[in-house]
Amino acid sequence: MEIDLLVIKKNRSVHISNEIGYLFKGHNIVEYKSPEDHLDIDTFYKSIAYASLYKSYGKTVDEIKADDITVSLIRETKPEGLFRYFIEHGFSVVNPYPGIYYIEGQIMFPAQVIATGELDKKNHKWLGALSGQLQRGNILELLDSRNSMIHKSDLELADSILEVCIGANRQVIDELMEDDSMYEVLMEIMEPKIKLREEQLRKEIQEEVRKEDLQKTINALRAFGHKNSEIKSSIIKEYKLSENEADEYL
Predict the structure, then answer these.
(1) Sign of the C-alpha dihedral computed for residues 207, 213, 219 and 224 taken in this order
(2) Residues ≥6 apart with Cβ < 8 Å to 194
(3) CA–CA separation, 15 vs 196, rounded Å?
(4) What pLDDT, on a 0 to 100 scale, did the predictor assign at position 83?
(5) pLDDT the model gives residue 66
(6) Contact by Cβ (8 Å): 115, 77
(7) What gap in Å lies between CA 165 and CA 232, rounded to an integer?
(8) How far apart are CA 14 and CA 232, in angstroms?
(9) Cβ distance 17 to 32 under 8 Å?
(10) Inter-residue contact 108 to 48 (CB < 8 Å)
(11) In Å, what is the CA distance from 24 to each residue of 72, 83, 112, 114?
């Protein structure tokens, strides 16, 4: 099983003023769902199961207390179907702040569902940027905020979000790229990812060429009457393969 989520550990003495963090305790399981992902009752309980699995991985028995864990699910829009299920089955859905919904009832951990499209835009503009519905003004505001940052860690986090934002809002980004000043800023953000993709493509091409060359070598050795055992020894030495890798080619 692969688990893709974020765990935020909070010191007991720390007070979080952000509305999203009001629910947080010592160990906070956070799962982000893209607009294309479903958030139904099974998805909800899967997140609860992840939190249970996380609890079980303490170094000692009951090291991570159940009452010190919370679960947060984040998506762009409110999951109407999920909320109907909760109400129909005796749970309560409480909306203490714009875009934030507490799920109350017989569940193992305190849980909240966060609808980023309903959050206060001023207080949560970076989380709200994880959307495919941004306008030119939204992106320009994000870029202005990013350009005013001075700490490397802040810039890295902002660029990570902007990479997602750029990929999800291609039409608006293409329009901004026509502006020379915007082009320079956007390329600064996109360049590391472009270079990474170019490097991955280069490696894939090199691997394909290597495989093709290796297969030609095997075919030539067979044409000259060499046995598989001889061919295997030869390609292991020539191409630095393991025995299992060599077997896959024979």
Answers:
(1) negative
(2) none
(3) 39
(4) 97
(5) 93
(6) yes
(7) 49
(8) 62
(9) no
(10) yes
(11) 9, 21, 10, 13
Q: Residue 68 burial by CB count (10 A; 0-12/13-18/19+): exposed, middle or buried?
A: middle
Q: If DSSP codes are grouped into helix, strand and coil, which group holds residue 62?
A: coil
Predicted local confidence at residue 205, as pLDDT:
81
pLDDT score at 101: 97
Q: Which residues sit opposite 101 in a β-bridge?
A: 113
Tokens describing residue 177? 């790229």
Q: So what's the pLDDT on residue 198?
A: 63
The sheet carrying 100-104 orders its strands as 6-9, 27-32, 69-75, 111-115, 100-104, 92-97
Instruction: Characterize the bridge pairing of strands 69-75 and 92-97.
Output: unpaired
Please check whether residue 92 is in contact with residue 31, taking contact to mean a CB–CB distance below 8 angstroms.
Answer: no
Where helices occur in the chain by DSSP H, the ranges are 41-56, 80-88, 125-128, 136-147, 152-168, 170-177, 180-223, 228-239, 243-249
* CB contact set of 182 (below 8 Å; sequence gap of 6+): 143, 176
Low-confidence ranges of the chain (pLDDT < 70): 1-5, 191-198
